[in-house]
């Protein structure tokens, strides 16, 4: 049975978070002399001399309407990577606790574990890139606090079986983190709607992929109000800058444009797969629910180097466990995909 206080670090339970000037005051005012800001403005066309809303209230309200989740269940971070790091710092005692990751998967789970001096137990995915539930069950011990699952998975592109994830949620006494960075491209529905069913569920999403805002660094975590309160307690006071908040608010008003780009991306993905399959050095292309494909080849490094020479950059994943011989290719514009194909047709 999951109980938040049983896995929360003692020092976090006792933590008094930093109280910023804007935390202590809410409401309307015309003169702000509380935060030691430059009262004369900024040397820019827009004034950024005031500190941003530390809890991003307006942005969370807009996201609430887009995602169908109460604002109190939303955490915003400097990319999803900040949310990942805060989960480690909130729930994992360095040198004592451990987490479970399921390679091949997103590399920041391991990096964050290393930074926080937390053991990351690896339970490899199966040959068809699904969870090894028996292996995960064997790896769990009394110090296992988090399980990270990326779905759709990076770098393989496939969605993880929903029933398997629900099995973990129902039986694990720690937190299950589902990273849905690519969910906008997936046929699988988001786990956000399951927040009321599972107190130990954290869902990560981002504005960096389908929303095209990678340069703004706005990541989201959706969880119970209790977990969100912990994350807000641990985060830096002004972790999302004013420009990112304003631009993200503007972008969230263009849902139709984003949906059209998603549609085009999926069409381009299907077209690219069909064309790549005709190349004799392509051995397999794995099913994808993301805006990229994993391609098994006869010579991953040789193909990668050849493309680099022609100014085309993809990812060589051939040294990643269970991805031997594989290249990860992001779906580009029609023109970019055409350039890729034309160049690959010259490879010998």
UniProtKB/TrEMBL annotation:
One of its GO terms (biological process) is L-histidine biosynthetic process. Residues 46-343 form the Aminotransferase class I/classII large domain. It comes from the Bacteria. Pathway: Lipid metabolism; Amino-acid biosynthesis; L-histidine biosynthesis; L-histidine from 5-phospho-alpha-D-ribose 1-diphosphate: step 7/9. GO terms for molecular function: histidinol-phosphate transaminase activity; pyridoxal phosphate binding. Gene3D superfamilies: Aspartate Aminotransferase, domain 1, Type I PLP-dependent aspartate aminotransferase-like (Major domain). The modification N6-(pyridoxal phosphate)lysine is found at residue 209. Its EC number is 2.6.1.9. It catalyses: L-histidinol phosphate + 2-oxoglutarate = 3-(imidazol-4-yl)-2-oxopropyl phosphate + L-glutamate. Keywords: Amino-acid biosynthesis, Aminotransferase, Histidine biosynthesis, Pyridoxal phosphate, Transferase. It is an enzyme of class 2 (transferase). Signal peptide: none annotated. Its cofactor is pyridoxal 5'-phosphate. Belongs to the class-II pyridoxal-phosphate-dependent aminotransferase family. Histidinol-phosphate aminotransferase subfamily. Homodimer. This is Histidinol-phosphate aminotransferase. The gene is hisC.
């Amino acid at each position: 049975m999951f109980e938040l206080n049983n896995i929360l670090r003692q020092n976090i339970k006792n933590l008094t978070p930093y109280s910023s000037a804007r935390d202590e005051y809410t409401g309307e005012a015309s003169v702000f002399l509380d935060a030691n800001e430059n009262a004369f403005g900024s040397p820019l066309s827009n004034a950024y001399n005031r500190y941003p809303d530390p809890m991003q209230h307006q942005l969370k309200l807009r996201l609430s309407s887009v995602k169908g989740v109460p604002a109190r269940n939303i955490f915003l971070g400097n990319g999803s990577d900040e949310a990942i790091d805060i989960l480690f710092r909130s729930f994992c005692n360095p040198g004592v606790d451990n987490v479970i990751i399921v390679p091949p998967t997103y590399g920041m789970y391991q990096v964050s574990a290393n930074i926080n001096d937390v053991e990351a137990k690896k339970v490899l995915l199966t040959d068809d890139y699904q969870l090894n539930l028996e292996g995960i069950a064997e790896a769990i011990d009394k110090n296992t606090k988090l399980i990270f699952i990326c779905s759709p998975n990076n770098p393989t592109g496939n969605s993880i079986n929903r029933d398997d994830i629900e099995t973990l949620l129902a039986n694990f006494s720690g937190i299950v983190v589902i990273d849905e960075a690519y969910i906008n491209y997936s046929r699988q529905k988001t786990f956000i709607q399951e927040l009321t069913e599972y107190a130990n569920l954290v869902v990560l999403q981002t504005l960096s992929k389908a929303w095209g805002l990678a340069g703004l660094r706005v990541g989201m975590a959706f969880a119970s109000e209790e977990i969100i309160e912990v994350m807000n307690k641990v985060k830096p006071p002004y972790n999302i800058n004013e420009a990112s908040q304003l631009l993200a608010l503007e972008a969230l008003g263009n849902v139709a444009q984003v949906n059209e780009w998603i549609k085009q991306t999926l069409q381009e993905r299907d077209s690219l797969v069909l064309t790549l399959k005709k190349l004799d050095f392509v051995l397999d292309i794995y099913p994808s629910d993301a805006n990229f494909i994993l391609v098994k080849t006869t010579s991953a490094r040789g193909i990668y180097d050849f493309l680099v020479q022609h100014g085309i950059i993809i990812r060589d994943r051939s040294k990643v466990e269970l991805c031997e011989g594989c290249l990860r290719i992001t779906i580009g514009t029609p023109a970019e995909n055409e350039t890729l194909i034309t160049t690959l047709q010259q490879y010998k």
